[in-house]
TrEMBL record, chain A:
UniProt name for this protein: SCO family protein
Family: Belongs to the SCO1/2 family.
Residues reported to bind Cu cation: 83, 87, 172
PROSITE patterns, per the entry: PROKAR_LIPOPROTEIN, THIOREDOXIN_2
Gene3D superfamilies, per database record: Glutaredoxin
Keyword terms of this UniProt record: Copper, Disulfide bond, Metal-binding
GO molecular function terms listed in the Swiss-Prot or TrEMBL record: metal ion binding
Every Thioredoxin domain range: 45-207
Cysteines engaged in disulfide bonds, as pairs: 83-87
InterPro entries per UniProt: SCO1/SenC, Thioredoxin-like_sf, Thioredoxin_domain
TrEMBL record, chain B:
Tree of life domain: Bacteria
Keywords: Signal
Classification via InterPro entries: LpqE-like, Lxx211020-like, PCuAC_sf
Signal peptide segment: 1-20
Feature: compositional bias, Basic and acidic residues: 152-161
Protein name in the entry: Copper chaperone PCu(A)C
A Pfam family hit: PCuAC
Chain spans, region Disordered: 142-161
Amino acid sequence: MNSADSRTPFHRSARILLLLVLLAAGALLTACNRGEPMAWRLTNVTGHMPDLDFKLTDDQGKTVTGKDFRGKAVLLFFGYTHCPDVCPLTLAQLHVAMQRLGPLADDARILFVSVDPARDTPEIMHAYVNAFDPRAVGLTGTSGDIEALAKRYRSAFTREPDKGDNNYNVSHSSAIYLFDRNGKARLLSTPANPQDDLVHDLSLLLETKS
Amino acid sequence: MMIRTLSLLAGLWLAGGTHATEADHIHASKAWIRLLPGNLPAGGFVVLENHGDQPASLRAASSSIYADVMLHKSSTTGGMGRMEMVDNLTIPANGKAELSPGGYHLMLMKASKPVNVGDTVKLSLQFSDGSTLNTDFIARPANTIDGAESPSGHEMDHSRH
């Protein structure tokens, strides 16, 4: 290589590009220093989804509403207890994420909403959620109430017909909805998101006091 | 005489080798069960390695404890969690297949007696040629992420039939 190479148009544009990259990096650093905007890693749905609102039966048999969870960060997802693989895996992953946050996670609640209320009684839900995490709450209710909540968050589920042996599968949305302490929908996580991202964003949500 | 007996035995062994079953070539490891409360179905997971030159195919499994065992596959494509029954799972020649959370698994239903964390449950894995492989599955708590990585690793005993 000789010195003439550095004067070719290619190298000039490369130098301009490098300058732009440095400027952009500087701007990002400034933004981080000011703490704005929040550096979310999950999908930000702030302002695009309705606040946490429902009226269902918890795993103690009590009627609870979305407002009962104000002051807590909420991780909401839909599933059913006869799901032997994906639902337990999601709950186990949420449990590990909560453990990684330490005492901070005591201000978070996992809300596991059954899309199979015919089989998921509060008693079954209670034993189920507590097998995963003490901060998990099982919610069940009438088919209508659950469908309304699923529709509210554009979450789909379809139930196979029961062939008479009470053994059927339910396909359901695998997304996890994250709400802040004010019940505002903030983030969407999927099983494909790395756990580090969930831990990172949940800790940001929890560090913000309502 | 001695040599003749040995060569006869070797001949028998070779002849036997050509009639080796699918199960003879399969090595099962990291076998565990995710226990769920009450009568809820449990998930069974295992890594199957095929040391043979022919593909093998897992067709079913059975257990003296669980009355119903089904081979299933979970998927979360398009944001939907689904579970479907599958007829078989191919273990490629000189390759492996994994039954792991979020993918292929055995759905274990109708336990005839309570299974507790730490228990060993023997499952008979059945292959397409009818051969079977008995494998010990360790029962793990519901909130286990990867049962194969648990610190209390057991040496597993496999017997072939």
